[in-house]
Amino acid sequence: MLEAKMQAELSNLSLQGFKFALDEHALVSITNPEGKITYVNEKFCNVSKYSPEELLGKDHRIINSGHHPKEFFHGLWKNLKNKEVWRGEIKNRAKDGSYYWVQSTIVPLLDLDGNPNQFIAIRTDITEQKKLPELSP
Questions:
Q1: Cβ(58)–Cβ(37) under 8 Å?
Q2: What sequence ranges are listed for the domain PAC (predicted)?
Q3: How much is the pTM?
């Protein structure tokens, strides 16, 4: 019994450490199957300039920059609904109207029946890299 409790505490500490490391590096959000935001980390809020209260329950259209065609997002959602990881760059709009770019990886999390029940998006802010002129060979 004591060993099981110690193992559970160790697992919890490992998850806390993992979450801390991830939050230090990335913008993280979680959505439900309908695309409504159920979680955002502090870095997501700092970059988007929205508070958690302004984001929770909304979908990601709140940060849509209008840069990408509808087909771009249809393809993204098709991948996710097919239980596939999606990777790509997205240009978003912050609350103050400024734009920012993120390199995104979106992973469908499956329920016990194998159906997507959450989507976790892990993003890196690449705005500064996108501002750099491309180097010619």
A1: yes
A2: 86-137
A3: 0.84
Name the residue range of residue 121's domain: 25-129
The distance between the two most distant Cα atoms of the chain, rounded to a whole number of Å, is 64
- Here the CATH number for the domain that contains residue 101 is 3.30.450.20
pLDDT given at position 124: 98
> Tokens 């259209």 appear where?
61
Amino acid at 65: S
Residues 42-101 pLDDT 10s: 999 999 999 999 999 999 999 999 999 999 999 999 999 999 999 999 999 999 999 999
Nearest to 86 by CA among 20, 36, 31, 40: 31
